[in-house]
## 1
Amino acid sequence: MDLTVRAAELDAADPLARLRAEFDLPPGTVYLDGNSLGAPPRRVADQMGRVVREQWGGRLIRSWSEGWWEAPQRVGERIAPLIGAVPGQVVVADSTSVNIFKALVAAVRLAPGRREILVDAATFPTDGYIASSVAELTGTVLRAVDVDELPTALGERTAVALLNHVDYRTGRLHDMAAVTELVHAAGARVVWDLCHSVGVLPIALDALGVDLAVGCTYKFLNGGPGAPAFLYVRRDLQETFDQPLSGWGGHREPFAMAPDYVPAEGVERARCGTPDILSLLALESALEVWDGVALADVRAKGLSLTGFFIECVDELLPPGTVEVLTPRDERRGHQVSLRHEAAEAVMTELIKREVIGDFRAPNVLRFGFAPLYVTYADALHAARVLADIVTTA
Amino acid sequence: MDLTVRAAELDAADPLARLRAEFDLPPGTVYLDGNSLGAPPRRVADQMGRVVREQWGGRLIRSWSEGWWEAPQRVGERIAPLIGAVPGQVVVADSTSVNIFKALVAAVRLAPGRREILVDAATFPTDGYIASSVAELTGTVLRAVDVDELPTALGERTAVALLNHVDYRTGRLHDMAAVTELVHAAGARVVWDLCHSVGVLPIALDALGVDLAVGCTYKFLNGGPGAPAFLYVRRDLQETFDQPLSGWGGHREPFAMAPDYVPAEGVERARCGTPDILSLLALESALEVWDGVALADVRAKGLSLTGFFIECVDELLPPGTVEVLTPRDERRGHQVSLRHEAAEAVMTELIKREVIGDFRAPNVLRFGFAPLYVTYADALHAARVLADIVTTA
């Protein structure tokens, strides 16, 4: 069947199609970089105006006791169902990097005697940078391993393994259930980085017994540029979760201004400083678009969209022009990575023509497909423009 | 002279009076808590709408290369003149607590062999909590000392002293020049916490040779609730500034996605994760109100306002009703702290009558006087309402 007709039929049958109208996107732009920065839900701009005028300006300091102080937990509870967590296990605070630091130090402290930290060799760099710092501070050794080599790498020395659920470069999705089981079988803790999987597919942290997880909120959750990240601490680990960024925000009685630090009883102890309210409330507003959205539908559309894009690439680009790095089976997130020798120039030209993906050195074209606002027609259009560029270049 | 007349004359002669119109404050409210949460400059609400619609929605991912990525340094340069720093020494990122962590660990690493951290015994609690964690992680010892006892406490063991420029509880201003000299004479480093002094008086970090400084931006700088904090690293210390939150934001080539962490050459190495753009740009907009404002004028008005308020308290309250904890000479910031046995109930009643200060346990009434938007008439009104409450209670 003709690809144009296919795209139209798929869009017409899309149960998530209504959500596109929730987002503010420039007309004529095909936006395939929601895996790097999600598009703004329309409601956010007005909400920010209200927060500044009514909460900050109108109520001033009183707003701290009218919902601001609890925002890290309240927004965490909005994320909890997206990662399979019952209430009381998620806070939103600080950046992903900072939360990785908290989680890794706490994990090392949970395992005295175990002196090795394993990190996914293909990890997004910041995870490895932070892990290296944690190793230096805690007197442990950092080892980078391929996820497929975990079975032999894990052992009695392993304190914790820090892993990316979806590889940021290739889009490969790891098997969280199997890997978590492997790590636990070695008596170690696992920290999952969900940056590229939250908002992509159903995640079952509680059901899989995951120990700790972090993730950003500005990709598929559309929380805004650099929006605060989340940290999940499994309920039964909270009492012994001893994180080093012991700011007053994590204190049991923050307003008692006590001289000694006593961590809060629950996941609030994962907080650190004064919460960044403007960004937190922008994120809270952005998360409202998920109300009533079934992650199973999101996942189905994401696989279908990325599959359709790969099919268009196969059909429209001359054979051998690009190499599809992303798994063609279901072991992928919602991005498609293509290898092309002149990837950087190709992406520059794509963006010039309003097809926005991104480039990852040295030769990767990345296209993210956010099921809430990307259509099959977008995917086809992107493949056509790409085909035009790589054949005429 | 009659206090009402005095207040009117002082307001009429106030060179900063025009700035009040820059702020969005509810009519009828006397806001004396700008030392906890500054009032919103009017321009911020509209600017936030523009940032969300035009930069995030309109330019999407492209905005990262159109001013977002450099925002931590750019906003830092707006703060630099307020703290006496030439360009290239300030970044805005993360919270005060997180920046204290970076600064203290880096300071300890600058002084191998020196195993003691000194912290102001009257410090805002989060500083002490973080210092305690740093001591644990770095194998150093934390010692709380009164600032007046520093001459005997400092010694060959001291790696670093962490001090508050203005005491958050009493409002006492410490002598930065003399104390910095003392700490340096002992061969140690000083980290100044400027939360309660930035935007209050001229600060001369460069001229005094201060090593490191942190400060928040949501008090007298009016950056918004939980706005990101700043960190100053003196130019000649930057090359050896080795901070433990080595996220990709501080990498020399963040977009090269290199496997190993190599810190940026300048103060950018004090960054960590992805910068929180919405909050950073709200702060940037808020800082515009300082354009053309002389800190000497701000300081003169702040001393005069707080002095006038103390005079009103002396005159209007029956003797012995409250005790003025804040120094009556110039060794104070722009807050006045009063001790009253029923401080919490008194503050509740004040706020009910739209005179907004705050309460600090166990018995302190705090009133902050932000010279950009507080008037002498406000100060007099607050003292009259306070007198009415404490005499009729």
Note: Chain B touches chain A through 83 residues (CB under 8 Å).
## 2
Amino acid sequence: MVVKVYGPEYASSKRVIVCLVEKEIEFEVVDIDLFKGENKSPDYLKLQPFGLLPAIQDGDYTLYESRAIIRYYVEKYKSQGTELFGKTMEEKGKVEQWLEVEAHNFHPPLYTLVLHTVFSSKLGITPDQKVIQENEAKLGKVLDIYEERLSTSKYLAGDFFSLADLSHLPFGHYLLNGAGKGYMIRDRKHVSAWWDVISNRPSWKKVLQLFPYPT
Amino acid sequence: MVVKVYGPEYASSKRVIVCLVEKEIEFEVVDIDLFKGENKSPDYLKLQPFGLLPAIQDGDYTLYESRAIIRYYVEKYKSQGTELFGKTMEEKGKVEQWLEVEAHNFHPPLYTLVLHTVFSSKLGITPDQKVIQENEAKLGKVLDIYEERLSTSKYLAGDFFSLADLSHLPFGHYLLNGAGKGYMIRDRKHVSAWWDVISNRPSWKKVLQLFPYPT
């Protein structure tokens, strides 16, 4: 069964796609144009009642929420492609911990920054410098903790690439591309080295090549 | 090994504790007083560098982020206590989906509501009626989708109690206790019935009895 992924150009959907590539799982994509409101169409709302991206369809099975989808596929194809949960239950626990840090500490300030820099004109938002500064400061504090963690560990969850690292790629990309905040990565030696390692993986390069970000 | 749970009185830590009770896992607690800043002490920051609750210590193993901790223990004690991830991989996928919905759709507006109602005086926040109204409206839309889901399914992920339901207990409790927003549950027939079922589980009653909420 080929997995259908909705809305491949958007960042959250790319979280799913890069995972499918790492796991060597066949997929096809279905375009959804957020800026035309296609995520609020009755058909799409049947799949994802909150009207958010991404969602997947896999035969009769459907699922939404990117971090739920990637967990599902990593377990379903445990012995295929890259092992993204580590080898032991304790390693998996740490992957889960850093996946949650990504979702709750890294993502929210970055998402606000992206809205107020990359998408302000498209969304008709007047970029608010105070909001930008506050969220940059919040994200900076988070990245300081990453810097310390990555000074003793090659990847976030340990000495292995995992879902926790992968999950940072789609929105992290905007810091260096579009948001003009690349220095937040580059000024932190270990974060910078980590970013180079994870963003140079063939899987991520393939995603960027196949599905350019919306502009 | 007895699991040590830090900060048992706070809502996020209760997410861990109710899970340990469901899984029949022995634990002890370590008090952390947020209002005295004990979560920023050097010792606690070694355990949880972001200074957030909860964290656990289990022999030499430590973990933080409540939703990571509960996933870890549900897998580690798969055949003990309540089965909180369902029986199949597909059921587990749906549990993960609704756990993410809890974290990203249900929790953020509710958390803001709780800050501006329950804890405003303790935190020195002037309750902002506009913020309260906006977040109540957001949460209401989320609960409308829950209402539809729960009209065809006894629990969120299917016809079985799971981590997805459990994860709503600690902050959902505030809607009916302290925030004065119980009508948001009670005005929605299926949400109300679901809430009664999950909040009457012996595990949750035990948590409330053992560890009263901070006032």
Note: Chain A has two domains: 3-81, 89-204.
